[in-house]
Design a protein that fits this description.
The complex is a heterodimer. Chain A has helices at 3-6, 18-42, 48-52, 56-81, 89-96, 98-102, 117-141, 151-182, 186-189, 197-203, 205-212, and strands at 7-8, 12-14, 194-196. By secondary structure, chain A is mainly alpha-helical. By secondary structure, chain B is an alpha+beta fold. Chain B contains nine helices and eleven strands. Chain B has helices at 2-6, 43-51, 107-111, 138-142, 164-167, 174-178, 189-206, 249-280, 286-289, and strands at residues 8-11, 29-34, 78-85, 91-98, 118-121, 126-128, 149-151, 156-158, 184-188, 213-215, 225-229. In chain B, strands 9-2-11-10 form a four-stranded mixed beta sheet. Chain B has a three-stranded antiparallel beta sheet with strand order 1-5-6. In chain B, a hairpin with a 5-residue loop joins strand 3 (78-85) and strand 4 (91-98). The chains are: A mainly alpha, B alpha+beta. The interface between A and B is large, with 52 and 55 residues.
Chain lengths: 219, 298
């Protein structure tokens, strides 16, 4: 899609294509299911969560299958976005200005591109976290097929699966907070696909310049 | 079922207190297996299948006296056979009756995420409650003796119940009743320990087994099944009996420090984000963006 085509009427820019949006929500709904059923198995005081997903045995049956759907969505995200997720000099400056970002002084932030450094970290944490969850999850799924001599695989997995899950849950909470509460307009962008020009200029000045100013694309 | 819950002193994945903790006078029961007088006849295997009405499966012949390589979901009691060559060149046929050890501190119960799927009665018996089991298999990771076995159709785990239906009626387990040599004994833990010690001393003093001893591993708090071994310094010879079984370190780390750190991080993270919003609020109001600033015109 050309930059010109991304500019749409009423002062908006197309930020996410239909494919990107659909895939985001496949990942989102499968992740939320996995997180809630996973938390049910994580703590006895959250075991009631299994009941709202059809009971413990059914939640245990479905959890790995939904895990495969989530894996597929993360893989498609990798295909769609990985080329835009390399860390650049602007990203390094972005990290060192993080306190301005946290205190809502966005005018003092270096010009982020289509994705800021935090979003890139989120992407990679879900990519590698998802990979660890998949590998440890396969061991836990087929735990009764692991021979006694390879039981160390089970021991690694019972630790790795919750550790990777906790790391992704931390990222997930920040992601939802940023998208729904902090950056107004971001949630709409992943539903409708577009953001206002002001949104683009405020949060992604590099990307704004690239689309609107036809400056050379930055990786 | 009120009588049954009163007999439960430990319960898997249970919030709050357990109904039967310290509410009944109860002796801790124990099986004593004297490997030195076991002839490997497998009457106990048959008795287990018969009493518990377990469906038959095919056995596996491997040119030894062992019925199959391992216990199964429907085969809870297996004599493990090892032909051991001693240093003087003589042979020893080692037979060990293998089944759930009924640990005082059960790794299966520790690892289980389903409320009440694994319980320990006040008499020390560790029992699976299949109606609460979700089939996750975490107990398989928690057990240091490789005991819980998953049924791939019902997606539930099964193991020796220590014939809890017989024991609660004052009978000995089926395997004990069937033993023709008297190598199996059943009684209170104290009585069985004392009988085992007497037998081990006898083996040392009169039968030329200087390393004879009792297997009651402290790493899992002691077990509800104890062995007399000719050589208690090498339990591995007896079908891989672990010399110092404990709940796997990974399971302990997962269920204690990681759980508390994780819960703290989850609650702290939610609270932190909420407080951040109270302090700083949204970065900008969306309605502002619908009336573009001058500088934002394309």
């Amino acid at each position: 899609m050309s930059h010109q085509e991304q500019l749409i009427p009423h002062g908006h820019i197309l930020r996410y294509t239909f494919k990107e949006r659909l895939n985001h929500w496949v990942a989102a709904f499968s992740y939320i299911y996995l997180m809630l059923t996973g938390l049910a198995f994580w703590s006895p005081s959250l075991y009631w969560l299994a009941a709202i997903f059809g009971g413990g045995p059914f939640a245990r049956f479905l959890h790995p299958w939904v895990g495969l759907i989530f894996t597929a969505a993360v893989w498609y995200m990798f295909i769609l976005w990985s080329s835009q997720m390399h860390f650049t000099d602007v990203d390094r400056q972005w990290w060192s200005s993080l306190h301005y970002y946290i205190t809502n002084q966005d005018e003092k932030m270096p010009p982020a591109g289509r994705y800021n450094a935090g979003q890139k970290l989120l992407f990679w944490s879900f990519f590698f976290g998802g990979l660890l969850l998949l590998l440890s999850g396969l061991v836990l799924w087929f735990t009764d097929y692991i021979p006694w001599s390879l039981r160390w695989l089970r021991y690694i997995s019972v630790l790795l699966h919750p550790i990777a899950a906790l790391l992704t849950i931390g990222n997930f909470m920040i992601h939802v907070y940023m998208g729904v509460f902090a950056e107004r307009g971001a949630f709409g962008s992943v539903i409708r696909g577009d953001v206002s020009l002001v949104f683009a200029q405020r949060y992604h000045p590099g990307w704004y310049a690239e689309i609107v100013g036809n400056s050379p694309p930055k990786k | 079922m009120s009588q049954a819950t009163l007999r439960i002193q430990k319960m898997s994945a249970h919030t709050g207190s357990v109904p039967g903790q310290g509410t009944q006078r109860e002796e801790v029961v124990c099986k004593l297996i004297d490997t030195t007088t076991c002839i490997g006849c497998k009457a106990c295997e048959v008795a287990c299948m018969e009493w518990n009405d377990l469906p038959f499966g095919k056995t596996v012949f491997d040119n030894t006296y062992q019925t199959m390589p391992d216990t199964r979901w429907n085969y809870w009691n297996l004599i493990l056979f090892n032909e051991h060559e001693r240093e003087d060149g003589s042979l020893q046929w080692l037979m060990r009756k293998h089944q759930c050890m009924h640990c005082a501190e059960p790794g299966c119960l520790e690892a289980c995420p389903a409320d009440g799927a694994i319980v320990q009665y006040t008499n020390g018996v560790v029992d699976f409650q299949q109606d609460h089991c979700i089939g996750c298999g975490y107990c398989i990771s928690g057990c240091p003796f490789n005991i819980p076995k998953l049924n791939s159709v019902t997606k539930r785990v099964y193991k020796c119940t220590l014939c809890t239906d017989r024991v609660s009626e004052g009978l000995e387990p089926a395997c004990i009743k069937s033993c023709p040599t008297g190598c199996l004994h059943f009684g209170t833990k104290d009585d069985m320990r004392s009988l085992a010690q007497t037998r081990a001393t006898q083996l040392k003093d009169h039968y030329g087994f200087p390393n004879a001893g009792v297997y009651d591993p402290p790493g899992v708090g002691g077990t509800g099944v104890i062995y007399v071994l000719h050589d208690a310094t090498k339990p591995e010879l007896y079908g891989g009996l672990p010399s110092n079984p404990t709940i796997p370190l990974a399971v302990k780390l997962w269920k204690h420090p990681l759980k508390w750190l994780g819960n703290l991080a989850l609650i702290g993270g939610l609270a932190g984000l909420f407080i951040h919003y109270l302090r700083f609020g949204p970065k900008a109001r969306e309605e502002e963006d619908l009336v573009p600033h001058e500088g934002a015109q394309p």
